[in-house]
Amino acid sequence: MGPLDHYRYLTTARRRLLDRVRELTPEQYRQEFPFGLKSVRRTLLHMAGAEWFILGQLRGEPKMEEYPFVSERVPDFAALEKAWRDLEPRTIDILQSEQDWDRPIDFKTVIPTRERFRVKASPIIIFTQFTYHEIHHRAQVMAMLRQLGVPVETLDFILLACEAVEEK
Fold it and tell me: What is the pTM of this model?
């Protein structure tokens, strides 16, 4: 299995998560929680933006003035979902185009606490960061959904990425 296979798993799990988010009212979508990025909306915006920014580093292309995941560009869930789906072909192209998963990449980033970092990593490390980052924040959204009475279950890698048939 390579990065593209892992990305396919992430998008499959993401779709299941977003199917449940779609059931929320706008108020629930924006409801504040005492953990993580405080709301389903902010967490999903952060996850989508991280895909655009982090994987864009493999091409050295992200320009923050073009950042697509700000509130003005994606004011509601439907717009976010569409923008995130529209990002998938770019991500697939980036992953398919990468020729040297061990080459050095050097970039600057700012984390949500506004701390700035210079990062030196390889494409496989950057991809791994993206993967774990999405899973981490997906778990936060899952916890928020559970508290809103809209749980999502069974997003395990082994069940979505492999052939798994429930035995009775």
Answer: 0.90
